[in-house]
Amino acid sequence: MRFVVDAMLGKVAIWLRLAGYDTLYSGTLDDDDALVISAEEDRILLTADEELHQRAVERDLPTMLVRGSVDEKVAAVFHKFQISAIIDPSKARCSKCNGKLRRINTEQKEEIRDLVHENTYECYDTFWLCGDCHSVFFQGGYWENIRKYMHRITSMIEKLSKP
Ligand SMILES: [Zn+2]
């Protein structure tokens, strides 16, 4: 299951990537390109634009019209495609560019020395390096926020699942 996400759904794209799904997103992607990419790469088109959604439906492309607040959007997409709101860094993709992440253990740590803050380098032993944009991820303080947010999304999904 892969996605292409319209320019209005950047936050949804980030959470799909973190959940491990190959998700194309660009703030400058236009409607025609989105339709072509969806068809050629067999990607589900997520859009907040009713007209674009309709065009995708007419072309028989897999698509979902995504509306509401950011939280509602994330919960609706996860619910519809039965994605569990759990972020496992060993499965996640780069939230910035959709690249694949590689785990960096203590033995390879030297590789990322120049890419992170000195303190971060000293404090953590496990990192994930994006092969494309060289962003480095680690389970720092923000990780707790990710966990809490996914918890909130999980309870929203549970509500959506009730008849
Ligand atoms: Zn990246």
Overview of this protein structure:
The structure is a single chain. The protein is α/β, with parallel strands linked by helices. The protein folds into two domains: about 5-90 and about 140-160; about 100-135, no CATH class. The protein is about 40% helix and about 15% strand. It contains six helices and seven strands, in the order E-H-E-H-E-H-E-H-E-H-E-E-H. The strands form two sheets. The protein has a four-stranded parallel sheet, sandwiched between helices. Strands 5-6-7 form a three-stranded antiparallel sheet, with no helix packed on it. Helix 3 (about 50-60) links the parallel strand 3 and strand 4 (about 65). Helix 1 (about 10-20) crosses helix 4 (about 70-80) and helix 4 (about 70-80) crosses helix 6 (about 140-160). The protein binds zinc ion. Zinc ion binds near residues 94 and 135.
Brief synopsis:
The protein is α/β, with parallel strands linked by helices and 163 residues long.
Features:
about 160 residues, 2 domains, three-stranded antiparallel beta sheet, about 40% helix, about 15% strand, globular, binds zinc ion
Helix content: 25-40%
The strands making up the biggest β-sheet line up spatially as: 2-1-3-4
- The coarse silhouette is globular
Question: How many structural domains in the coordinates?
Answer: 2
Which ions, cofactors or small ligands are bound in this entry? zinc ion
Mean pLDDT, to the nearest integer, reads 95
Biggest sheet layout: 4 strands, parallel
Radius of gyration computed on alpha carbons: 17 Å
Individual helix count: 6
What's the order of the H and E elements? EHEHEHEHEHEEH
Give the DSSP E fraction (strand runs of 2 or more residues): 5-15%
Number of strands: 7
